[in-house]
Amino acid sequence: MISTFVFAPLFGWPVLLSGAIIFAVLLVLAIYGGAGRGVVLRAGVAALLMIALLNPRVIEESRQQLDDIAVIIVDRSPSQNLAPRPEQTDRALAQVREKLAERENLEIRVVQAATGGQDGTQLIAALQRALADVPSGRLAGSILITDGQVHDANRFRTRPNAPVHVLLTGQQQEMDRRLMIVQVPGYGLVGKDIGVSYRVEDKGRTGAVKTARVRLSLDGELIEIAEAEIGQDQTFEVNLDHAGPNVIEIEVETLNGEFSTLNNRVVATVNGVRDRLKVMLISGLPHAGERTWRNLLKSDPSVDLVHFTILRPPEVNDLTPINELALIRFPTQELFEEKLDEFDLIVFDRYVERGVLPDVYLRNIAAYVRGGGAILFVDGPEYSSVFSLFKSSLGDIMPLVPLGGSMEKGFRPQLSDLGRRHPVTSGLDDTRWGRWYRQVSVRARSGKVLMTGQDGTPLLALERVGKGRVAQMSSDHIWLWARGFEGGGPHGELVRRLAHWLMKEPELEEERLSARVENGKLKIERRSLDPAPVEVTLSAPSGAAWNIPLIPGKAGLATATVDVAETGLYRLEDGTHVAFAASGPANPKEVQDLRSSAAPLTPVANASGGGLYWLQEGLPDIRFLKSGRKLTGSGWLGLVENNASAVTGAQEKPMLSDLLVLLLLLAGLGGAWWREGR
What is the C-alpha to C-alpha distance for residues 490 and 484, in angstroms, rounded to an integer? Predict the structure, then answer.
């Protein structure tokens, strides 16, 4: 109970002051007028009246003591997941809570700050949010449990009598090697070299090591091993061999004594774009579908098409005038020797081997395919003749073997079971396709059959030969779809997908593992021709790994979605393929320096009157001290003892009774009258 003396005047202060002046003047006049006998009593009556008008009162307050508040901020950023920091953090948190719980009238608030996004560890922001509703008169102090790698320390604002103490995890004098990307283009031309710059930095290293071995990979395949100078920008050239995402991985060897390899690998994605797609279309015998292939290829503005139609072989002599033959000489040497590798795709449309192209040129084409080129064969009845390309040097790379003759009756093309899963044909609805009326009799000796025709005969087959790719179609009647016969069919989409698969577009790979991070979720997608269920191994930036079962879907796809919180590089493996997904920027702040350090938070502790303590040296003792005293020392940290309270009730009482005041006034006036009347 606390009592407080206050005045509650019955009139305003100007009125009371005026009355006091009047009473004083009258008292002086009375003294000088000779009424000295009753002056004292009159003055007492005036003073009593003024006191009564001031209305003195007593307020009695009931108070309840308030708990002080101690705030503990626990850093749960990715760098805090490195051993032995998690164990140190959990042990320190438990010990601090246990010590604080021994004190009465203390509220403990614990905030788990799972930061570490694009802006790094925002521990001070978490502290400011935790203190937003804490009155200064109740704050005992704050304790941060962290490795010290904080990226918003400059935003700290001090509060009176609010110490911030820092308990540092990790070890002093740690060493760390960091690999960072300096410059990488977002796009590059297919077939051209691009420059990628990187740098290796060693922090806390003592020694004479001046170089480090670096492994450079493209789409999971090693392309170079280099010796990089420590602390110097390095540049290497990489050739983009396909359109779409090209994943560049750089990994540096581990530094001797390094406590973590979390930042020893970086991945960058460069989108390959084709400047112009160069296609050579060689048509043999003229037929109704010849213009279909030409129109399909010419409809794409990015395609540079070279088209030759061989109207007659050299041995034919029909007395046609020279001026009515080809206007230009067929440039066989330029096309099939000097500039063959400049073409992205070669199409043989019902070509007949009758000596126009010598076998040496056909061998060049086969070598071009094995070296990474692409070729499409469209067969007609001549494929079963003695002039078939199968009997040339190109026969070794063809997946379909002619059996003799062709079938000349209507049939509706169908997808095979494999074709329903292959990205070239998956998703195409074969229930309403128009009929074709001719197909060469063939069998598949290799490759993958995606479409079938009459009596299940292979209609479309794909094959990988060396580094290149081959597609073969055993019918020339795709032109019926182009003209809308019986509703037509997806001729444009099918040809587009065929061309992109032949040119190794990643989205049309039949065996592919990919992943991407969107809105805090890692989306995993695996395409395969094998319907068997599969698991992938996911490795997080912190090094933690676990198996993720994929959910089978349609068209050969299996997917999974995983919530992710860490910033950095995620690695996925299915036993054959490797994929990467980056969460956050290419060089995240969180992994720029993984060493524990007191430097970032030293200004915060000094400005607030707190201290910094390494947990490897033991947990400091916790003391509670009066405001204004030193709050840090060797082996101990101090929190403020505020003794704050809140008013729970108040009672106001007058100091003078109205009746008592009246009686005293009457008595005083009566005494003054009696005294002056004598």
Answer: 10
DSSP conformational letter for 274: -
User: Three-state DSSP class for 184?
Assistant: coil
Burial class (CB in 10 A: 0-12, 13-18, 19+), 505: middle
pLDDT band at 15 (very low <50, low <70, confident <90, very high): confident
CB proximity list for 670: less than 8 A, separation 6 or greater: none
Q: How many CB atoms lie within 10 A of CB 42?
A: 22
Which positions ≥6 away from 152 have C-beta within 8 Å? 119, 120, 121, 122, 123, 124, 125
Which residue range forms the structural domain that includes residue 388?
A: 277-507
Q: What per-residue confidence (pLDDT) applies to 428?
A: 92
Please check whether residues 474 and 339 belong to one and the same domain.
yes
Predicted model pTM = 0.66
Extract long-range pairs of 22-28: CB within 8 Å, 24+ residues apart. Answer: 23/49, 23/50
Residues 472 and 336 in one domain: yes
Spatial CA neighbour of 376 closest among 397, 344, 346? 346
- 158 and 196 share a domain? no
Q: Give me the pLDDT at residue 159, please.
A: 82
Higher pLDDT, 285 or 107: 107
Total structural domains within the chain: 5
How does pLDDT run across 480-505, given as a tens digit for each residue? 998 899 999 999 899 889 988 998 88
What is the rounded CA–CA span in Å between residue 468 and residue 529?
Answer: 20
Contacts of 437 (CB under 8 A, 6+ apart): 408, 409, 410, 411, 477, 480
Q: Which SS3 state, helix, strand or coil, does residue 507 take?
A: helix
Cα separation, 670 vs 662, whole angstroms:
12
Is residue 588 assigned to a domain?
no
| 23/20 Cα distance (integer angstroms) | 5
Q: Quote the DSSP letter at residue 36.
A: -
Q: Which of 268, 294, 328 is where one domain is finished?
A: 268
210 and 256 part of one domain: yes
- Cβ atoms of 140 and 642 within 8 Å: the answer is yes
CA distance 250 to 265: 6
